[in-house]
């Protein structure tokens, strides 16, 4: 008895040792190698379409190695980035900053390298003016980041499902189906009457965020926070109207109830569980990645109900903590240059923030094979220069998450509409405290 | 290890009776120090590390909890204000409720099942060691892998659990939507991982119960069930107290399973249906970057664990005492 007991224990011990060995973890640092090569770490989220550009840059700069770290979900990326920047270590040499958190970082620009010190000033003409100014200190002397993309809006739809529902499949005709969100809901009702095994739209979260960005950029110019940083979620009309429109779509039974960027949302693409999705330009790459090769040619892109607007868009910055600031600044300048923006657009359809790139025939004539050869360059670039910038307060992201939670609870049938709205406002106040 | 070294040192110090002890030379002083200090030296690495990574952070957390301490911005002394806020914070009490609920749903069946399993493993059977090691397999799988697989099993549209439930007319149950469904799913995850571990601990304890007790009981005509209730269970009491306390500590620190069940959503569901206290602490520290408040929350967790373990201890002692 004793012997077998001891054997059992030694067995346990060896298993435990194995488990320890397996859980060893890697560390990401950026250091000059012994042979003088400099490794630059680049932090991004979602898809930036930089893979080819990295290879090209490495080929042109023999002393530079690029290490790419990508986090799919923005909600996960942001707090991590915030912590790195505040702690003064951990961040890459070049980091992607989404417009929602830029305001927060603009409050302490000294955490980042002033790109004007690295000759970025001469690049000003290569960016839309408002995009340039978003990452520039009010006195114009400190440039935190260089613009990568902007989020022009469109509506993506599945031609095979539309055909099944007896709806037109041509993108121009589809766009004419829904000049307004009300018309969009009517179309959805027709769809729902014909097709039972899939819903009209992916879910409330993506819809609400898109409609809010759209209506806010057409009117107030800000969303949950006004330009003085005060929480105005309860009084800013676009917030309520985006909420109401989303609610009506939910109540019409058109939503598949999926939350953006969750695994179930990804499988929803694969299983064709919804027929339309509001797609800012950067969403095209996300759709392609999730829906996969089987869905090639089945998605198409039409105009969005309710007119133009912008949602999302990012910047590249060099944290002060970088040990290779000069090299990193060069890389950031290269990645946001006109030619690179065109390349990123071709790779992932991230709409350029550079007017030259927007006018470039390579962009305007670009057709996306995956999206049934849709002329996405023309669709997105057309209204891009008329887009009005959106001011986003420092706590926009957490507040937006509380609105998403309330909409999900509504969708799950766990809250009544009024209670959900009250809850969203209460929780928003808590986040902004 | 320390015991054997200590006793050897002791043996050297105790001189055999007979000739008087020699003068107190440097050697004797050293020998005395050796006896007195060496044991402390030998155990010091643990305590030094514990001080550095355990005690000091704990003390520092108290200091932080007394401040309005944000990641960026001012650090202002606010006394017990953070604790006052925690005690009146509905989100905190919601998290406490979730944690307690999942603790009960997960731990009670887990320990009962472990007991039954241990009893079965204690019988004579073929390939006994293999089977005994087998119950430990869930333990060595990465917790993240477990959570991801179970997350898919319980997925709303494409999950296997819903597929099976579909046969009985239950359509597309959203396991994250309700408190009890999410608690259940998470508890299944926890039990899958920990039942085997507890079973092995029980098994080890069962093997130290003297055989003659069972033989005597058998001669007196006690059935197997009777033997289990009247011999095995009382003899296991200290072990059961141990597992109950360890499970209490683990249960109050439940984090990875609910986090991954909600796909990394630190708020634990649209209505915080399954946000545990540790998730709430983490949310305050690393989402809201409100370190002062998060420290206060973590001290509340510490108090809760202390209270829970104490209650468990007292209750189980009582229960055993009446037998």
Automatic annotation (TrEMBL), chain A:
Q: Where is the signal peptide?
A: 1-28
Question: Keywords assigned by UniProt?
Answer: Signal
InterPro entries named among the record's database cross-references: Bact_solute-bd_prot1, SBP
Q: Which domain of life is it from?
A: Bacteria
Query: Has the keyword Secreted been applied to this entry?
Result: no
Kindly provide the name given to this protein in its UniProt entry: ABC transporter substrate-binding protein
Keyword Chaperone among UniProt keywords = no
Q: Which Pfam families match?
A: SBP_bac_8 (PF13416)
Gene3D superfamilies associated with the record:
Periplasmic binding protein-like II (3.40.190.10)
Instruction: List the source organism.
Output: Actinomadura livida
Automatic annotation (TrEMBL), chain B:
The GO biological-process annotations, alphabetized, read as: transmembrane transport
Question: Which residue range or ranges hold the ABC transmembrane type-1 domain?
Answer: 96-312
Give one Pfam family, short name only. BPD_transp_1
**Span of the secretion signal?**
none
Keywords annotated in UniProt: Cell membrane, Membrane, Transmembrane, Transmembrane helix, Transport
Q: Where in the cell is it found?
A: Cell membrane
Instruction: State the organism named in the record.
Output: Actinomadura livida
Give TM regions: 46-66, 100-121, 133-154, 183-205, 235-255, 291-316
Q: What is its main location?
A: membrane
Fetch the Gene3D superfamilies from UniProt.
MetI-like
Question: What protein family does this chain belong to?
Answer: Belongs to the binding-protein-dependent transport system permease family.
Please give the residue ranges the record annotates as the region Disordered. Answer: 1-25
This protein's membrane topology, according to the annotation, is: Multi-pass membrane protein
Q: What is this protein called?
A: Cellobiose transport system permease protein
């Amino acid at each position: 008895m004793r012997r077998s007991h001891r054997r059992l224990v030694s067995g346990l011990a060896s298993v435990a040792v194995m488990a320890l060995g397996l859980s060893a973890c890697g560390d990401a640092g950026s250091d000059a190698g012994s042979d003088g090569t400099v490794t630059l770490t680049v932090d991004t989220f979602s898809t930036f379409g930089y893979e080819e550009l990295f290879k090209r840059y490495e080929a042109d700069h023999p002393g530079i190695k690029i290490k790419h770290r990508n986090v799919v979900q923005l909600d996960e990326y942001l707090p991590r980035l915030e912590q790195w920047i505040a702690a003064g270590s951990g961040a890459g040499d070049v980091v992607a900053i989404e417009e929602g958190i830029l305001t927060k970082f603009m409050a302490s620009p000294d955490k980042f390298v002033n790109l004007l010190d690295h000759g970025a000033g001469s690049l000003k003409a290569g960016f839309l003016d408002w995009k340039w100014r978003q990452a520039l200190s009010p006195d114009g002397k400190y440039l935190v980041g260089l613009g990568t993309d902007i989020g022009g809006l469109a509506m993506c739809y599945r031609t095979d499902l539309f055909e099944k529902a007896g709806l037109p499949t041509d993108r121009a005709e589809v766009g004419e189906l829904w000049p307004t969100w009300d018309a969009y809901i009517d179309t959805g009702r027709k769809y729902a009457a014909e097709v039972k095994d899939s819903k009209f739209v992916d879910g409330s979260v993506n819809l609400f965020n898109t409609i809010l960005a759209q209506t806010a950029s057409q009117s107030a110019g800000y969303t949950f926070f006004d330009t003085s940083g005060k929480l105005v979620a309860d009084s800013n009309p676009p917030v309520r109207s985006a909420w109401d429109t989303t609610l009506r779509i939910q109540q019409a039974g058109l939503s598949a109830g999926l939350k953006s960027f969750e695994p179930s949302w990804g499988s929803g693409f694969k299983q064709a569980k919804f027929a339309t999705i509001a797609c800012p330009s950067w969403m095209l790459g996300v759709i392609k990645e999730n829906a996969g090769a089987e869905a090639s040619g089945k998605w198409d892109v039409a105009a969005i109900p309710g007119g133009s607007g912008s949602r999302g868009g990012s910047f590249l910055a060099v944290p002060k903590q970088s040990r290779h600031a000069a090299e990193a600044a060069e890389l950031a300048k290269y990645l946001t240059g006109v030619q690179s923006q065109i390349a990123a657009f071709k790779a992932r359809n991230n709409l350029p923030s550079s007017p030259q790139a927007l006018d470039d025939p390579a962009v305007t004539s670009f057709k996306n094979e995956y999206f049934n050869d849709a002329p996405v360059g023309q669709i997105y670039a057309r209204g891009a220069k008329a887009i009005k910038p959106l001011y986003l307060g420092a706590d926009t992201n957490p507040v937006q998450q509380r609105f998403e939670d309330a909409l999900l609870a509504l969708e799950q049938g766990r809250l009544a509409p009024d209670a959900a709205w009250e809850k969203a406002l209460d929780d928003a106040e808590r986040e902004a405290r | 290890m320390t015991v054997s070294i200590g006793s050897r040192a002791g043996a050297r110090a105790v001189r055999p009776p007979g000739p008087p002890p020699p003068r107190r030379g440097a050697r004797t002083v050293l020998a005395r120090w050796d006896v007195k200090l060496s044991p402390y030296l030998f155990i010091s690495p643990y305590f030094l590390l514990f001080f550095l990574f355990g005690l000091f952070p704990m003390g520092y957390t108290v200091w932080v909890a007394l401040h309005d301490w944000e990641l960026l911005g001012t650090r202002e002394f606010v006394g017990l204000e953070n604790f006052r806020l925690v005690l009146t914070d509905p989100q905190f009490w919601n998290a406490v409720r979730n944690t307690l609920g999942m603790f009960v749903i997960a731990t009670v069946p887990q320990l009962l099942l472990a007991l039954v399993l241990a009893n079965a493993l204690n019988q004579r059977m073929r390939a006994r060691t293999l089977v005994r090691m087998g119950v430990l397999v869930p333990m060595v799988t990465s917790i993240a892998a477990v959570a991801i697989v179970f997350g898919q099993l319980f997925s709303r549209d494409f999950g296997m659990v819903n597929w099976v439930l579909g046969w009985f007319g239950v359509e597309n149950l959203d396991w994250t939507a309700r408190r009890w469904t999410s608690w259940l799913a998470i508890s299944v995850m926890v039990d899958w991982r920990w039942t085997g571990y507890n079973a092995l601990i029980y098994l080890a304890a069962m093997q130290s119960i003297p055989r003659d007790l069972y033989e005597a009981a058998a001669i007196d005509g006690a059935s197997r069930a009777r033997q289990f209730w009247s011999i095995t269970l009382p003899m296991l009491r200290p072990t059961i107290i141990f597992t109950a306390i360890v499970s209490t500590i683990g249960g109050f620190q439940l984090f990875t399973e609910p986090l991954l069940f909600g796909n990394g959503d630190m708020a634990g569901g649209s209505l915080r249906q399954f946000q545990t206290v540790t998730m709430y602490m983490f949310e305050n520290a690393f989402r809201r970057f409100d370190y002062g408040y998060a420290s206060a929350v973590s001290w509340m967790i510490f108090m809760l664990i202390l209270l829970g373990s104490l209650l468990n201890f007292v209750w189980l002692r009582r229960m055993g005492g009446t037998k």
